[in-house]
Automatic annotation (TrEMBL):
It comes from Cupriavidus plantarum. Residues 18-78 form the HTH tetR-type domain. It holds the Pfam family TetR_N. Residues 41-60 bind DNA. This is TetR family transcriptional regulator. GO terms for molecular function: DNA-binding transcription factor activity; transcription cis-regulatory region binding. Keywords: DNA-binding, Repressor, Transcription, Transcription regulation. The lineage of its organism: Bacteria, Pseudomonadati, Pseudomonadota, Betaproteobacteria, Burkholderiales.
């Protein structure tokens, strides 16, 4: 799970809240991977994180929220990386580069464990679909920020949609592979190459 960076204007109270939220998320993820999603209770997470059940609910409303927190944090860092891109780079290449870079940080074992976790809960699967919609919108807004020409907006929207589609297809192909497992980043790179070849 990604460590969320501190905002520049963060005060002591905000820093402690951010660190507590991050600690809860990290503890919960370890427990989910060790004991299963359904086998991990909110009370057990709170106890392992050194907080009360009541305090837990100040940070997260459910176990699903903890998983989505990690996805949202990863997405926020991806967007931050994209916003640093030079407008001289082709938008599709820029999105490919930041997506492949982020997914390459995870080992095959980590990816497999997180994927199995996501597949273990119907509610998580449903919320993951909603997350993809939000990620597509965030990508589009970031692309518009870097490539500001109004006449490019329709193209940038299509790039955001196609990029999230490439990610989803790549993860599905990675999940369904047999034999020696190739890294998810390789599947994502291949998906973007197929996308570019079809344009």
């Amino acid at each position: 799970m990604t460590v969320v960076g501190a905002p520049k204007s963060e005060g002591l109270r905000e820093r402690k809240q951010r660190e507590t939220r991050q600690r809860i998320a990290e503890v919960a993820l370890r427990m989910f991977l060790a004991d299963g999603y359904e086998g991990t209770t909110l009370d057990a997470i709170a106890d392992a994180a050194g907080i009360s059940r009541r305090t837990f609910f100040s940070y997260f409303k459910s176990k699903d929220d903890i998983i989505l927190f990690g996805l949202e944090a990863d997405s926020a860092e991806l967007i931050a990386d994209l916003l640093k891109t030079s407008p001289d780079v082709a938008p599709l290449d820029a999105v490919r580069d930041v997506m492949v870079k982020r997914i390459a940080r995870y080992t095959t074992e980590e990816m497999t464990a997180i994927d199995n976790l996501m597949l273990s809960s119907e509610s998580l699967l449903a919320r993951k679909q909603a997350f993809y919609v939000r990620q597509e919108q965030a990508l589009f807004l970031a692309l518009r920020e870097v490539w500001r020409q109004p006449e490019r907006q329709t193209t940038l929207r299509m790039i955001a949609m196609a990029s999230v589609g490439a990610l989803r297809l790549a993860l599905q192909a990675w999940r369904e592979q047999t034999g020696a497992r190739k890294p998810a980043a390789k599947f994502l790179q291949d998906a973007f190459e197929s996308l570019r070849a079809g344009l």
